Amino acid sequence: MGWKGREPFLLIVNALLIVILAATTPFMMRPDAAGGRVLDLSALRLLLDNYAATFIGAVGMTLVILAGQIDLSVGSALALCAVVAAQVSQMGWPVPLAFLAPILVGTLIGLINGAIVAYGRIHAILVTLGMMTLLRGLVVHLVPAGWVATSDAFKGVGLARPLGVSTSIWIAAAFALVVALAARYTRWGREIYAVGSNPNAAAIVGIRPHRIWFTVLLFNGFAIGLASAVHASRFGVIQNNIGQGFELLLITAVVIGGTSIFGGSGSVGGTLLGVLFLALVRSALIYFRIPALWEQAVYGAFLLFAVGLDIARSRAWARAWRGGTA
Question: Fewer beta carbons within 10 angstroms: which end of the chain, N or C?
Answer without folding.
Answer: C
